[in-house]
Batch of 4 targets.
Target 1
Amino acid sequence: MTNLRELTGKINIAGALRADEPLKEHTSYRVGGPADLFAEPQTVADAAILLEAAREHALPVFILGAGANILVSDRGIRGLVLSTERLRSVRVEGERIVAEAGCPISLVSEAAAAVGLAGLAFIYSMPGSVGGAVWMNARCYGSSVSDILEWVELLDEEGRVVRLPARPEEFNYKLSPFQKRRALILSACFRLHHGEKPHILAEMEANRADRERKGHFAAPSAGSVFKNNRAFGNPSGKIIDSLGLRGYAIGGAKISDYHANMIINTGSATAGDIEALTRFVSRRVKEELGFELEREVIPVGDW
Ligand SMILES: Cc1cc2nc3c(=O)[nH]c(=O)nc-3n(C[C@H](O)[C@H](O)[C@H](O)COP(=O)(O)OP(=O)(O)OC[C@H]3O[C@@H](n4cnc5c(N)ncnc54)[C@H](O)[C@@H]3O)c2cc1C
């Protein structure tokens, strides 16, 4: 059995490396127990050292972006949690923008607008990192990340840096090929086009204001709990609403008053409360309407 405190002393990286890090500080739900080992590498080389050490000591690895689409259990995550938080450079190359995995996707959107590049306004103000947005193939306002993704650089399962062109046929609604792998997304290149700066900024502001109106920033959440399935005829929020579940609560977790597909932490929620409420909604929808809702928020850790 590896002594993790001893191991932190042996791994030499420039970024942060701590044992027993409370993950509620790193998730948008503001819940989650400790990571046995928590690292924030500052360079790709440091990330490679950490993943190599994890392989050597047979530690499971979880890659953490901004924690905006996960539910970390109250018992936390065993093994190594590698956060991309400090990998956040962004560069413009003609009509393309290349961003490291930990950069908030909203900042990439802002950087594109600043040089008059259009194509990333749709995702402005969505919480999350570049890596998380690519891994989830995030979708908002009718566009998906895969619509503008040119290539992705990975640290693959053997510790090699590889650049893969994004093939549209490998992506689907909230599905990316990276979900089948255990690779670390290092950076992504987005294909944009020149546009009028005021138009780009106006679209970004309209999207931000729309999210604000819909209560996205009013309380800790992870956005939509369930994916939308066209076969059900209505978005998941409408389906949940039709059962009168808005405002229903378990412990400190509550179905949002303004969006029935969002569970919020009213302040005192545990991950257990959120999980119980998620299962309750699934069960009610299945029992009363026969639909099997698919979870979008990913439960992680030791349940
Ligand atoms: C208020 C609110 C509104 C939201 N609105 C939307 C919306 O409109 N559309 C939408 O699609 N989503 C939405 N979301 C969900 C969330 O913002 C997105 O799914 C986002 O892409 C998650 O990114 P993240 O960095 O937080 O990923 P995390 O939650 O940290 O991770 C999600 C998954 O990606 C993996 N991952 C993250 N980074 C990497 C990496 N570098 N390499 C390999 N794997 C990685 C993780 O291991 C995990 O499995 C919303 C969330 C909130 C809180």
Target 2
Amino acid sequence: MNVLVIGGAGYIGSITARLLHENGFKVVVVDNLSRGHREAVQPGIRLIEADLADTHGLRHVLISEHIDVVMHFAGLIEVGESMAQPLKYYHNNVALSIGLLETMRSANVRQVIFSSTAAVYGSPEKAPISESHPIRPASPYGASKAMVEQVLDDMHRAGDIDYVALRYFNAAGAHPLADMGEDHRPESHLIPLILKSLIHGKGNRAALKVFGGDYDTPDGTCIRDYIHVLDLAAAHMAALTHLVEEGPSGAYNLGNGRGFSVLETIRAAEAVTGLEVPFVVEGRRPGDVAVLTADAGKICVESGWRPCYPELESIVATAWQWHRRHPHGYAG
Ligand SMILES: NC(=O)c1ccc[n+]([C@@H]2O[C@H](COP(=O)([O-])OP(=O)(O)OC[C@H]3O[C@@H](n4cnc5c(N)ncnc54)[C@H](O)[C@@H]3O)[C@@H](O)[C@H]2O)c1
């Protein structure tokens, strides 16, 4: 099968593209490199540097490369930035996704796997969250993903497409070979921030900020569900099989089902690295919720997917190998 991976020079897309390639799929990547890295696209995978807005170019790629399935990772991902610049998010994440879906329809490509997020749920009523939890995004970022999910569902009902929307919780970790990993600029995710503070912080406590120590959790810090990036990539392969086998279209949570607090994550990093992690506790960040964990039972039952890296320390260990060998990410 021929798979178009849009946003395939980014963190999750590039590792998924590699897994697909290693499993015999023909993979073409489209990425505008606004946030991704040319070096993240592995040899043997064609990278087309293009923006989602270039619908003529996309149509040509879909037809000339005989694309069967689109994996749509391309998006802006910063909750805080989306609060400050909502239109940027609605344009890039919603308007350009609609353009992509129109282009797919005109090129008769009918299957799509979409990168959605736990942020569609907003402030959860309970933990863990299942897919039946109300969709009440608390940021333009989360709303942009919920809107695309709605479009996908309506198009599916109209008979235009079949789709799987994967609602990722917190993607983390690196490729076990330590040659691919997380390199967001700016970085806002906890595990790379902890590890980079060890590499670049030089013992400075202010190098790592913990936002909120007074949440209603056992140690007062937020609890999140970390899922290894290779488990995410494997879930995309499972979703692809699910679509090919005419499984039902819909949204699926993708998480470990277990939560770890910020302090537990810091302790895991200390255990993995053998180094003390200095940090300061600051006030809560607007929009952060106390506990966010996934009930991922639906995808497990329907596709047979299971996480291979459920332990926090194994997730942190792969990330540490990557950051230690590449202290400046793909730049070196
Ligand atoms: N990282 C996480 O923890 C997480 C959690 C939930 C959901 N997601 C979703 O997963 C997807 C991938 O996340 P990531 O962490 O790999 O992000 P990333 O920023 O590393 O990758 C996104 C890629 O999309 C590309 N891109 C963005 N807009 C584009 C456009 N208009 N045209 C072409 N390319 C464009 C960027 O250059 C980048 O390479 C995103 O859609 C994100 O919302 C990520």
Target 3
Amino acid sequence: MKLLGKVALITGAGGGIGRAIALRLAAEGASLALLDIGESLAATAQAVRAASGRCECEHADIADAGEVGVAVAALQARLGSIDCLVNNAGITNHIAPLTRMDPARWERELAVNLSGPFNLLQAVLPAMVERRWGRIVNISSMAARGGLYNQAGYSASKAGLLGLTRNVTLEHARHGITCNAVLPGLIDTPAVQAMPALVRDDALALVPARRAGRPEEIAALVAFLCTDEAGFINGAEIDIDGGSHLCPVVLGSAREIRERQAAQQGSSPGTA
Ligand SMILES: NC(=O)c1ccc[n+]([C@@H]2O[C@H](COP(=O)([O-])OP(=O)(O)OC[C@H]3O[C@@H](n4cnc5c(N)ncnc54)[C@H](O)[C@@H]3O)[C@@H](O)[C@H]2O)c1
């Protein structure tokens, strides 16, 4: 119960990783302020309460600063000031070559994945500064380092989130606030399960651990970063990817994978 008495706000709490983070932080004793744009938030709240956790929910689009301000004020009125912020909500809404990307979708990925965390930071940081204590965890991605084929908007927004993380540390470490980025590799969530099997299996074969991560493994790291014990870890970028950062995972298209496999078979000894 290392977070007893703390209030933790988690965005995207209705999703695969967000729900695991909510359950873990509740198990550590935190009261939860859960925020999501979608209806799946209710199932997370039900799971938290079934596990005897305390939570309050608000729906908001994190890309909209006005909506974020209203939602955070409503959550704080019920739970008190936010001690821990987990910027977890994120989207991949466009898989296309750079030259054919739809500018509106590019803008939306940046708005949700980068401006969203910025909006949350503006809403919660002043109270953290006043109380001289705060924990912020930004969920980035392995895409922030190695890029992700045909996902320029996602990669750029997740790389931008690393820059934002560094600035929070530079400006607020002296106020007792830590801000760290977590960079997951492939995690076994509904979104990853929904990928074409050929694409998913091809990528997993490149993961040194030869498996996807579990949402609970991300949640355990986030929970630690929210504790007092983690108070000197600041501005860090922590890979949690089964070693993928050593051996970049390529999410190709099914057509490209078949072409590569055919080329490999054609060039292997004894097939000529
Ligand atoms: N699953 C993976 O393999 C993986 C890998 C690397 C990074 N990540 C990152 O982890 C985070 C969680 O991923 P996930 O797999 O659980 O995704 P998910 O799609 O299951 O969950 C994301 C949640 O965010 C919410 N959301 C989306 N747009 C929002 C908005 N504008 N305002 C408020 N809420 C919004 C969704 O409704 C959803 O509940 C994301 O930031 C994602 O980029 C995931």
Target 4
Amino acid sequence: MQKNKVFIGFICLTMFLSFSACSKSSESEGNAEKPSQSTSQQTMSENNLTDASQAEEKTSSESASASSGSTEQTTSGSRVLVVYFSRTGEQYNVGVIDKGNTAIVAEMIAEKTGADLFEVLPQDDYYPYTYDELTDVAKQEQNDNARPAYKGEVPDLSQYDTVFLGAPVWWGDWPMIMYTFFETNADALKGKALFPFSTHEGSGLSGFDKKLSDALPDSTVGKGLAIKGEKAQNDPDNAREDVNEWLSDLGY
Ligand SMILES: Cc1cc2nc3c(=O)[nH]c(=O)nc-3n(C[C@H](O)[C@H](O)[C@H](O)COP(=O)(O)O)c2cc1C
């Protein structure tokens, strides 16, 4: 109960702080509620690199099919990569989920753009399965300005001109593991067009764009997208409309 109050408190705070950022995103309203279910086994893919055709197999949506990102060019003629972090198990406002909210959005982007997908997976998956415990661990990481290690080999970034980077908002910020990714790959991301996206339960984009730009000053950060996690999870057709509208604005 106390944690709920604390959480509602930081949602309000982060919504206030990120007001200007939220106004740039395509969708950011709504208040979070307590998750309705408890512990579940996390599911994680063995290999964190997939292409759009594999993503399509994994998603249950009815969207038009996408071509494999490994060889295809995008409509803008550039090669595209989607990098994302996402969790399963007990999640805010949606109960227990076996595909993360951000993963759903990442796959929609990949389908539409023909991108490759790279999932940022923790090297040591110490993240708890229950929502309340996860918030404690995430807060501790943030307080420590931690750089949790991720596993797997990042694809050769020189192949890509455009990189979409997405994550859930955690305590008003990118999860710290994404900063590990940014900093580890800063040189390889120089000069590239980066587009941030978040899923959230009230904080919108939460300044993901500015924070990304600060972390990677030699890259170009474009317009971001914020989608409520509950919408991505429970109303994917509408979420896809938001994704496609944003991508259309970006020229896809
Ligand atoms: C540790 C933690 C912190 C969170 N902090 C926020 C927050 O500050 N603002 C917000 O709107 N939502 C917050 N949420 C909700 C998530 O951003 C939201 O549920 C997201 O869609 C989860 O995405 P995922 O399933 O891809 O992990 C938080 C969730 C967790 C687990």
